[in-house]
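stuck on this fold:
=====
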Amino acid sequence: MTAPQPNQPVDADIHAEEKNMPPRSDLKDAAGWMLLGGAVLIGSLRMDRLESQHINPYTVPGLLTGLLGLAMLLLGGLLGLRSWRRGALSQPLAPPTALQREERRRIWVVVALCLVYAVGLVGHGLPFWLASAIYVTGAILLLQRLSADPMQRELTPRAWRKALVIGVLAAVVTQLVFQELFLVRLP
């Protein structure tokens, strides 16, 4: 994004960048957000409401996640509508650029990292804080290694230390917040 001119409002730059964004890309993103929001909403509706324990309806499990799923569904729909109005279905499908292919690769790496964390690390004997520290540290190092900037790709001892400190701090803070503040027992 270019720096705004002295007399040019910042909004003009945002709108100019928005116009360069292919509308079909937004349509795919909208479909993804709507699918995720729908899955979250369905999952939250299927959770036990704990009526037998006379739980206050405003504190039932799944209420917040249901609202978040609904928000993702709604905002995904708005993104899809905007994309459709911009002509997403009338434009021919262009082959992906090298930058788009690289972005997709990074997204799939992040999805794979999340799956390894959720399926392989959490709940398999490791304490939650240790599994989380391994995940955060590994994700930082791997994504740094995949950086487009050659200077950032180099994993120096300083980069390792920084990733390890961030990973351990993030894991410990998450553990403490959930267990002590939200009173949620973590695996």
